[in-house]
Amino acid sequence: MPEDRPIVALLTDFGVEDAYVGVMKSVIAGRCATTILDISHAVQPQNIAQAAYLLWSAYKYLPERAVTVGIVDPGVGTSRKAVAVRWPRGHFVGPDNGWMSYVIRDFRAQESGAAAGELPRGWEGVELTEPRFWLDPVSDTFHGRDIFAPVAAALVNGTSLSELGSPLASLTLLEIPPPTGGDGSVRGHVIHVDHFGNLITDVPAGFLPERYAVAIGSGTVEGPARSYESPDPLVALVGSSGSLEIAAPGGSAARLIRAAVGDPVSVTSAKKSGGTPTHE
Amino acid sequence: MPEDRPIVALLTDFGVEDAYVGVMKSVIAGRCATTILDISHAVQPQNIAQAAYLLWSAYKYLPERAVTVGIVDPGVGTSRKAVAVRWPRGHFVGPDNGWMSYVIRDFRAQESGAAAGELPRGWEGVELTEPRFWLDPVSDTFHGRDIFAPVAAALVNGTSLSELGSPLASLTLLEIPPPTGGDGSVRGHVIHVDHFGNLITDVPAGFLPERYAVAIGSGTVEGPARSYESPDPLVALVGSSGSLEIAAPGGSAARLIRAAVGDPVSVTSAKKSGGTPTHE
Amino acid sequence: MPEDRPIVALLTDFGVEDAYVGVMKSVIAGRCATTILDISHAVQPQNIAQAAYLLWSAYKYLPERAVTVGIVDPGVGTSRKAVAVRWPRGHFVGPDNGWMSYVIRDFRAQESGAAAGELPRGWEGVELTEPRFWLDPVSDTFHGRDIFAPVAAALVNGTSLSELGSPLASLTLLEIPPPTGGDGSVRGHVIHVDHFGNLITDVPAGFLPERYAVAIGSGTVEGPARSYESPDPLVALVGSSGSLEIAAPGGSAARLIRAAVGDPVSVTSAKKSGGTPTHE
User: Fold this and answer.
1) ipTM > 0.85?
2) Can you state the percent helix, strand and coil of chain B, rounding each to 5?
3) Residue C76 forms contact with B (CB below 8 Å)
4) Does residue B44 belong to the interface with chain C, where contact is any CB pair within 8 Å?
5) A15 touches chain B (CB under 8 A)
6) Alpha carbons B224 and B222: distance in angstroms, whole number
7) Which of B145, B190, C99, C108 could form a disulfide with C51 if both were Cys (CB 3.0 to 4.6 A apart)?
8) B252-271: per-residue pLDDT in tens?
9) Nearest CB to C78: which of B4, B227, B250?
10) Cβ of C226 and A77 within 8 Å?
């Protein structure tokens, strides 16, 4: 019993102090009647990598056929392309600057021999070149309002991708260093610090041994914990995005150990507990 | 002419920096077409009492049959129960940790002889035990997404409470010290500091004499004022939630007198004005 | 394919920490099924001029027939009027304190001989005097909830303006000093600093020479740039609202040159570039 029409989801670095988000929603609502969701508008200004992470943490949960508009767009008004992309469960609309990188990496992981930037199998994209779908005039500084919002509404209304522009063979990708390792040890990075100060890493659950020790900054923490509730100052567990997360029960891990995005984490196998207690 | 379907209202401590709220809305919108409202997502992390106050300040205004999802959930993944509750005007869905306490107190105030924690008359609750209504798999750290959002959508779609789990006789309640007093004097507490710096207390309008003096911190202020507009640095009045409120016209009372949640306030009867001016 | 019913757009200084916005939406959603948009809730407390600017930056993009509710209301509960106004593309509802001033100035610019405060041609307004459309009781401190939200819902549901109150001949206007100038030089002011630290001025695009130099604070910047991407520390360009804007590529112009709302800017004609480079 979801809505008949695709919903629109928005992800921007616009903040909420100005009318920018409201104006985009106004343009969309004036052209199609559908639910408009906020993924987030608190991406740090111009931080494409953060937008890419947030999209990745959300994309599996988007309703079928959702039109997701992502606007972190330091290159607005330059030669960077404006694109619309169809992936198996909906559309992405925004600048071609890498904000879909983590999602594309997930899809590319199942393929082999694809060239960097090439669209994953089953995806299709166009460069937005048809001004008849845009507002008129188009400003140099707010394509979210003038191009991406009306294009999103056109997709909701059933416009086909091919009407919107010319085919696109590749997309700009961010360089995302994957976690590395072997022999029971993994090296990764903090890729996001959330509202609670939880440190979210790029080490996927599948890379973790049954019991492990995580070294981050000057501290070490053993895992996995099963929840955020613990007498310990820090816990390590698999977070809701499916990767290793370090949290401080009742507090902020980021503040407690002064960690930030980009900090390295190192995971090694730890002795199993549950048997004879080891001397410690 | 409101919507046919129940709307969903969300109250969380998730903030808006991450995709957590957007993901919950995505799960809901993917399962039912209805309006999704934000009560607030700015509850201080893990502050159940603040969520309880905010729900209380809003509940009388919720549309009929609204499904209100409250997620301030430090115990996620532990043995705390997940519950859905029907009250006379809708449903509450979330962890069983006290976030409905102020609302329940309102309902219990009209009863006598009820045991602590017992559901008020006319309420019904279940512990959520039926995984077929949840996402699969269920994470240990994000039941808002994996359990509460899909259960809320099920309620919107007409699923009955009894399908969702097993009956619940009692709910966890916060200990809320009521205001005390007599002989024209009342002692209460600041229970919320709002966006404007207004100090909202737990002293209900009905406890206030016609004219009164409020002692808070090192200051005193006479009331009631009729509005926030005044040449005085501080005013005391009955706020929009129906309890005593201290405000600083054009500024922040919290900053002006350095008051915070939990601070005691004391109200005493003051001489009536309007007759012969008293010597002062 | 927009919605049949008018949408509601909200602009307030309520912030998002409290349930104030959620309560207003609850009142509206309980009375009419329509899309409710946020223009912004981050107007500085009691800053009517900022609300007026934000409304102006958004109003041309509002869907046809939108009911826009603006609540920056330091005078709530005093004798300030509560009003509803029909303008050619929808309705405005809120206190009569100047928050529509920039929009009215746009409309008045096309007229001559109108008295200050008089409604522009084609506009119609009423003072809200009919309590049967309000919540009962009406608080002294939250007319957004008790008067403006239910009146907005009534307008969405087709209630005519004349049922809501008595005709209004004039509206309170803010004094907005217009930019001044002549002989190729213009003096204006910073009227908004946005989320990115961009300095938005009141100097309209039409007042700018082909090439120009902007003096602001201790700095000077030549324009126009075509985008925010530049090796220069500062760029000047026509922003998305159609007026002169100063930005710092990849950073915050407000922080870089310590500029704020109200600061004067002075624009003078600059030599054309594109020919032989001039000695500099």
Assistant:
1) yes
2) 20, 30, 50
3) yes
4) no
5) no
6) 7
7) C99
8) 999 999 999 999 999 999 87
9) B227
10) yes
